[in-house]
Design a protein that fits this description.
- The chain is of the alpha/beta class and 612 residues long.
- The chain has helices at residues 14-25, 29-61, 79-128, 132-137, 140-182, 184-197, 205-231, 233-238, 242-267, 270-294, 300-341, 402-408, 432-437, 453-458, 466-475, 479-484, 502-516, 532-546, 558-563, 581-585, 591-611; strands at residues 66-70, 73-77, 362-371, 377-387, 391-395, 417-422, 425-426, 439-442, 451-452, 492-493, 520-524, 550-554, 566-571, 574-579.
- Helix 1 crosses helix 11 (300-341) and helix 2 (29-61) packs parallel to helix 5 (140-182).
- The longest helix has 50 residues, at 79-128.
- It starts with 13 loop residues before the first helix and ends with a helix.
- The structure holds adenosine-5'-triphosphate and magnesium ion.
- Residues 402-403, 444, 524 line the site of magnesium ion.
Amino acid sequence: MKLQNTQAENAFRYSWLLKRAFPFIKPFLFRIFLGVLVAIPVGLLDGVTAFALKPYMDYVIGKHDLIFSLFGHPITISCGTLAAIIPFGVILFAVFQGLMRYLNDYLTDWTSQKITNSIKMKLFACLVQMDSSFFDENSSGIILTRYLSDPDSAAKNFIQQLKSIVTSAFGAGSLIAVMLISSWKLAVVGVLVLGCAFLPMALIRKKIKETSNKGMIVGGNITTNFNETYSGNKVMTAYSLQEHQKNAFNDQIHKSFDISISLTKRAAWMSPIMYSIASIGIACVLYYGTQLILVGEMTAGSFASFVTSLLLLYKPMKTLGSTLTNLQNIFVSFGRVFELFDIKPEIIDRPNAINIKNLTSSIDFENVCFEYEEDRPVLNNINLHINKGETIALVGNSGGGKSTLVNLLPRFYDVKSGSIKFDGTDIRDITLESLRENISIVFQDNFLFTGTIRENIMLGNPEATDEMLDNAIKSAHLEEVIDTLPDGLDTLLGERGTSLSGGQRQRVAIARAMVRQSPIVILDEATSALDNKSEAVVQKALDALMKNKTVFVIAHRLSTIRNADKIAVINEGNLVELGSHDELINIQNGQYKMLYEMQFRKAADKEVGSIA
Ligand SMILES: Nc1ncnc2c1ncn2[C@@H]1O[C@H](COP(=O)(O)OP(=O)(O)OP(=O)(O)O)[C@@H](O)[C@H]1O
Ligand SMILES: [Mg+2]
């Protein structure tokens, strides 16, 4: 499943989005509701201020006393008293509003983080379940963008926008109310004209989705660029690829610029148009309002309140408008996030999968065919029978399919046809967990996690006892390494174990495989990269790991191959020869004999030389 190809097709299906988002929002509904509630007075302030202008103008500035009747009693408030009460009231309300604003900020941040986190956690849980092929197909950058940035831009912003919608809606509502109180005729004119100003918003919905999807891909590429520069920094320096990396990065930055500017081009004319329409509205209101005052239908105070409201109305209306644009962006991100939940790994336990114990009799490959990509076969009809306790060495040309073959046993990939049997049971009928518990692997390129050496070894078996750990360290010949390190076993390794040498890293990986104490061992030897001395140490460590185990070893060293019970020669995906060293070496014009003579003669000479 290529993540680039899933592009939020559901971004306009709002009810679908809401249905999928609801489980994440549900636990926090009460707090969200509370947040919305306190956002109301935050929005109302504008209206209150504008409303206060009317009595201020009509009574304080016009020097009239306010006379009204309360429960039949006439009440008089002098204009001097009003001059003190009105500003004081406005201040009081502003303080109250400040408090509510604080509460609102706290609640929206709290809920939005919680929702984002729960989405991220669920997404990560999905991600770690993915097949090897999923990681083959998707770059680290795209995965980061889709699994980390999208939930942020979706959930976090969603609650923020909700807050601004409520604040603006109540702000706008209160202002419109003040306008209606001041003069309903004028209000109708003003609101109609302003309303028209926001119509163009609906037109750019599609463009927003398109831009967001393109932006996601470019953002992913940029992250991948960073990752590759980081992981490949030595290759980059050695081959002077700085310029190349820089250009690739600049390309993406330019692309991202083009994408965002194309949206600006489409969207930015809306603001001036909105302003123009709004100013027409204000002009109409000014003219019509003056007429109303002249014929005595409106006081100057009402008019001042009205015009202030109308001017203040622009801000919440504009916020509402841009919130709609932002919401569309958010829906696109949500659409992409929910698509991720629907990507299911293909390699999962069958409904009736059984748990197995340790290997008791044999592993069998029966007519195994495999391909990574359609119609490009990598393995053809492989048949192998390996008894418990045997060691099988896989040799053959580079790219022939040796690593692929051993990757099928722990089901990193599933066979295309044929089957692999564990004590006679197809491995697809066995639970992944119990199958993988039987296998420990030392890869060609061993990955160590950030953490201490101890933690890295214990990852092989978190329940390993101190004794098992000590034994593994001894057998992997790690003692001498650990003794030289400042914090010994608890020395922190750099990311991916970069602070260790290649041979040391490999021995940590061997110790990790050792504490697992599983009956089957898979070794993808990479000792060709090591010098003679470390090769000898690593070899000893490997020998210790292989002892009393059923072993698949992709072997480059003569000693391993000679000592193997069986040797399988795999060339171009075909099993071309199978037998012991002595059997195969006697086949005239045989592949193994040829390989042996080409590849191992030198090594044999060297080994003899070093013994002599
Ligand atoms: N993840 C992958 N996606 C697509 N093709 C792949 C993948 N991994 C390997 N291949 C292809 O499958 C073929 C077999 O690769 P494999 O790694 O099994 O070879 P190998 O025998 O282990 O080689 P080497 O001795 O160089 O390690 C190669 O042609 C390779 O290009
Ligand atoms: Mg390989």
